[in-house]
Automatic annotation (TrEMBL):
<comment type="similarity">
    <text>Belongs to the expansin family.</text>
</comment>
<dbReference type="InterPro" id="IPR007118">
    <property type="entry name" value="Expan_Lol_pI"/>
</dbReference>
<dbReference type="InterPro" id="IPR009009">
    <property type="entry name" value="RlpA-like_DPBB"/>
</dbReference>
<dbReference type="InterPro" id="IPR007112">
    <property type="entry name" value="Expansin/allergen_DPBB_dom"/>
</dbReference>
<dbReference type="InterPro" id="IPR007117">
    <property type="entry name" value="Expansin_CBD"/>
</dbReference>
<feature type="domain" description="Expansin-like EG45">
    <location>
        <begin position="38"/>
        <end position="142"/>
    </location>
</feature>
<dbReference type="Pfam" id="PF03330">
    <property type="entry name" value="DPBB_1"/>
</dbReference>
<dbReference type="InterPro" id="IPR036908">
    <property type="entry name" value="RlpA-like_sf"/>
</dbReference>
<feature type="domain" description="Expansin-like CBD">
    <location>
        <begin position="156"/>
        <end position="238"/>
    </location>
</feature>
<feature type="signal peptide">
    <location>
        <begin position="1"/>
        <end position="17"/>
    </location>
</feature>
<keyword id="KW-0732">Signal</keyword>
<dbReference type="InterPro" id="IPR036749">
    <property type="entry name" value="Expansin_CBD_sf"/>
</dbReference>
<protein>
    <recommendedName>
        <fullName>Expansin-like A2</fullName>
    </recommendedName>
</protein>
<keyword id="KW-0964">Secreted</keyword>
<dbReference type="InterPro" id="IPR005795">
    <property type="entry name" value="LolPI"/>
</dbReference>
<dbReference type="Pfam" id="PF01357">
    <property type="entry name" value="Expansin_C"/>
</dbReference>
Amino acid sequence: MAHFLCLLFLLLPSATACDRCVHQSKVDYFSSDAPLSSGACGYGSLALSLGGGRLAAAVSSLYKQGAGCGACFQIRCKDPKLCSSTGSNVTLTDLNPNTQTDLVISSKAFMAMANQGMDQDVLKLGIVDVEYKRIPCQYTNQNLSVRVEDSSSNPNYLAIKLLYQGGQTEVTAIDVAQVGSPNWSFMSRNYGAVWDTSRVPTGALQFRFVVTSGLDGKWIWAKSVLPAEWKPGQIYDSGLQITDIAQESCSPCEDGTW
C-alpha cells in the first residue's frame, strides 16, 4: 500500500496542465488516417472506432507521455465565414512532433469544423487558426473496455490498453489482482495507452485504476474484468464507465468559457 500511495503522489502533478482552458493555435490535417491509426498511443486500427474517426495527434504537452491518450477536444476554426461555432470534436490517438501546430487531425475532423457546404473550402486551406479546449469524452451505451494485447502470454505476461474511457480524466496508475484477492500487483505504462506486468495473478482478474478526479485522485474499481482463460487480442467489458471530470486550479481561465 505504501508503494501505491507513493506512486499516486508522484503521478498526480501531471494533471495540472489546465486542459479545460481555451487555447489558441493552428491545426493541420492528415490526408490519410493511417498515421493516426498506427500512432504513439498504440490503438492500432481500433483508433478508428474512437470518436467516430475524428482523431488527432497532439504535441507532447497534451500527449503527456501517453497519459493524454484517449482525451477528447473540441476544436473550432476562427474564420466565421467558413467555420461553425460548434467546430469539431476529436480524440487523441497519436503524438505530434511538429511544434508548429498543437494538433494535426484527420481530414474528417478537419472538414467537420466547416459551415454546411463549406467543407471542401476549409480543406483547401490546409492549416487554419483555431481555438480548442479539452472536453469530456462520451460513449453512449459503451463501458470502459480492456483489450489484451497480442504480446500477452497467459499466465506469464499481461499487456492491456483501455478503450472507450468517458469523462475528462487520465489514468495514472493501474493495479491487477485475482478476483476476490487483496494481493494487488502494479502495472507499468509500457507506452501510450498500453500498460503491462510480468507479475500476473492467476485466475480471473480484477483491476483498480487511479484517475485524476477532483484536485487529487480517485480509485475506480472494476471487480471482475478478465476471465481465468483470458486470451490475447480479445476485448473485455469492465462493467463500468469513468465519468469523472478532473478539477483543475487554472488561472486566469477557471471556467474555460468560449
